[in-house]
Design a protein that fits this description.
Elements: H1 14-18, E1 24-28, E2 34-38, H2 48-52, H3 54-61, E3 71-77, H4 80-85, H5 91-102, E4 106-112, E5 118-123, H6 126-129, H7 145-154, E6 159-163, H8 165-177, E7 185-190, H9 198-211, E8 216-225, E9 228-236, E10 241-244, H10 251-257, E11 280-284, H11 288-291, E12 302-306, H12 309-318, E13 322-326, H13 335-338, H14 347-357, H15 359-367
Parallel strand pairs: 4-6, 6-7, 7-11
Antiparallel strand pairs: 1-2, 3-12, 3-13, 4-5, 8-9, 9-10, 11-12
Helix pairs in contact: 14-15
The structure holds flavin-adenine dinucleotide (FAD).
């Protein structure tokens, strides 16, 4: 039976999906993250959760299912409007378009629900896929999506799963555990800085709703304005809007990028490497201006790592949609391809303040650090 290690559990929820007797429930910890919890009165001790858990499985299997990129590109979607709606260069859009239009398949990715919580869903509809565009800088809730993926694969449908590397690993481990043929599964992971707390994100949204005396109508974490691509823009039902970023002191971006509100496992992440778990990895091509001159137009450039032949086959089919330049691992290197984020100074103190005195005191403490 799985012994959930709270420092290492990524929350991929492969265990909750695979449990044959639904003995694994979801609980929220005091930092606002979901964790699996076993109801021992229901558990039949079959051990399947332990066998497929990416954390315990990787200890036995030492990541032999990872690949170094075979091709690396800087990519800009040729259609400006697609790029504007995407976080980086609009690569997710074209890969998902191929799966939906030409392969008649389904796409899984992160969307906002009606309360602006972030969750993973599956769709075969383009208008719903459009909601997956754009980074949501908060851990996405997986629910029972792996079971849906299993059903589609059994129907011989093509499925594209997109998400963080630990989520992609969760999908593979779940399917392996159930002996499901994954030939029709395509995976695309993001380069991941770490996932922020859904609980703190909720506190941040509540505070803004109070400040603007209105419910939120839309959120865009990557609003591209004045040559800066990492602004948060929140529109309210009363017509007001909030636009800010890390440098202007946005609280969520500061807590996130100063590494205070990442999941415990993110500081110990064993996917933060150039050896990748997915077919294709996408990220921001940070620092491109230093190695490829005159390519960055400040509207977003994607870094694309093609990790498998399967990934190459699908990317080759959409490559004409992009302005592409081939790159190499040295030129595209960034922090989270090397190692996980470090725990910042006074991290425990900050969380103790949150537990004792709440969100506002936590933010004030961070501002004075
Ligand atoms: C939490 C987080 C941390 C990131 N950290 C880095 C980083 O350190 N370095 C870097 O280069 N890039 C990072 N990225 C990736 C980057 O922000 C873009 O998502 C990526 O470049 C893809 O851009 P795009 O233009 O191709 O497509 P977009 O349309 O922007 O891509 C959307 C894709 O991101 C997925 N997605 C969105 N939010 C989430 C979420 N919360 N959880 C899982 N999947 C999600 C969607 O399912 C979809 O596949 C991060 C993304 C997230 C969500």
């Amino acid at each position: 039976m799985i012994d959930v290690n709270h420092e290492r559990c990524t929350g991929c929820m492969a265990c909750t999906n695979i449990c044959p007797v639904k003995a694994i429930k979801i609980s929220i910890n005091d930092k606002g993250f979901e964790y699996p919890i076993i109801d021992k009165s229901i558990c039949i001790k079959c051990g399947i959760c332990d066998k497929i858990c990416p954390i315990t499985a990787s200890k036995k299997n030492e990541s032999n299912d990872r690949n170094k990129p075979i091709k690396i590109y800087a990519a800009k979607n040729k259609v400006e409007n697609i790029r504007v709606k995407s976080s980086s260069g609009g690569v997710f859009y074209e890969i998902s378009e191929l799966i939906l239009s030409e392969m008649n398949g389904c796409v899984c990715g992160a969307v906002y629900d009606e309360n602006f919580e972030v969750k993973h869903i599956m769709t075969s509809k383009k208008e719903i896929r459009n909601n997956m565009q754009g980074s949501k800088y908060v851990q996405s809730k997986m629910g029972y999506l792996y079971k849906e993926i299993e059903e589609k694969l059994k129907e011989k449908k093509k499925v594209l799963f997109t998400g963080t590397p630990c989520e992609v690993d969760g999908v593979y481990k779940y399917l392996n555990g159930k002996n499901i043929d994954s030939t029709n599964l395509y995976t695309c992971d993001i380069i991941c800085h770490g996932v922020p707390s859904p609980g703190i994100y909720k506190e941040y949204l509540n505070k803004l709703e109070e400040k603007f005396s209105s419910k939120i109508k839309s959120i865009n974490f990557r609003y591209k304005e004045n040559e800066y691509t990492q602004n948060i823009k929140i529109e309210f039902e009363n017509g007001k809007q909030y636009i800010s970023n890390y440098f202007k002191g946005d609280e969520l971006y500061n807590l996130f990028l100063k590494d205070y509100i990442l999941r415990d496992s993110c500081y110990r992440c064993n996917y933060a490497s150039t050896k990748r778990v997915s077919d294709i990895t996408i990220g921001d091509f940070w620092g491109i201006e230093k190695t490829i001159k005159n390519f960055d137009d400040k509207k977003g450039v994607s870094l694309v790592l093609i990790n498998t032949e399967k990934g190459k086959a699908i990317f080759d089919k959409v490559s004409d949609k992009f302005n592409l330049i081939e790159s190499n691992i040295e030129d595209c290197m960034q922090n989270n391809l090397r190692k996980p984020c470090d725990i910042p100074p006074k991290y425990d103190e900050l969380w103790n303040i949150y537990r004792k005195n709440g969100y506002n005191c936590m933010v004030n403490f961070m501002k004075n650090l």
